């Protein structure tokens, strides 16, 4: 039986601090509009499963020392929300919690793509204490293998940033807990004053509702044919546009919306290279714009490839607008959340560019990577898949719609 909450037992908690050579106190880091947009959102929880990992007693020292070094580069993760009227990160010097745990059973069962045991996944990621920004849990299975789970506050980082941190941690661990000079690379930038925008708005989101347990559908060999179908009646489309359009249409079909019903697609565009001046690839924090595309359900489920082409053109138009003016109508970004209708939306997070299966801590590539915190009806997570050129698609839908979605999703 896979690990469940009651079958996973904690054995040790270590506070891991960044290895900082200077003793100079770090000033508080004021968060930007891009950060504050996520205020009130529950922690993001990610899980990586390593069936071939060594025993925890063998891996523990290297994991902890490499985590300390990685936190030194990505310092905001080691802070906590400041107890003040400002939305800031304070560097207390207490570090982050790393929980070592044990679980019954075999890791191989939940590492299998055909099994989605949400209860087991949830038991393998840590809880994030109020005010803290990152926590890590390493769980050793009785039958061998390690699960590496982490929870982080979206206030401190977007997907691109957090995976840059995990990659640096993995590279350092693989090197035996030593950050070689060539691994350090260019300095990580987290100065929010570099983000220049015409005005500032703050948002306090309140999360509510019960989770809809997600299921996974993996897409690999047919991405090329999907792009060709989409391009048959429009211009060439990207992998992202083709896949997201197909997901949107399939979700609408699974929900059996009426043709006249309005549906909304939400996705997030990275603005690092679109701002003036650009932030560059080493900026650590949040820098994504909320993008929305509205359509009538009937326009998406037209016969042949017309619905697919319609969706692709709508997405491309929104992406074009982001490229021209990434901060357009900045003050109205937060209004999108009040417009979302339960059951009529698809919210796409993460990106096929996130090479999550390259996170090798010295134990080989992970056997499975999951986003555990999918609790919103219509939430979709995209990352690069296990096989070269593939995309892993995870979606959260009510059980009554999941089977329909899966049957319609496969590409032809």
UniProtKB/TrEMBL annotation:
The lineage of its organism: Eukaryota, Viridiplantae, Streptophyta, Embryophyta, Tracheophyta. It comes from the Eukaryota. This is Uncharacterized protein. GO terms for molecular function: acyltransferase activity, transferring groups other than amino-acyl groups. It holds the Pfam family Transferase. Keywords: Acyltransferase, Transferase.
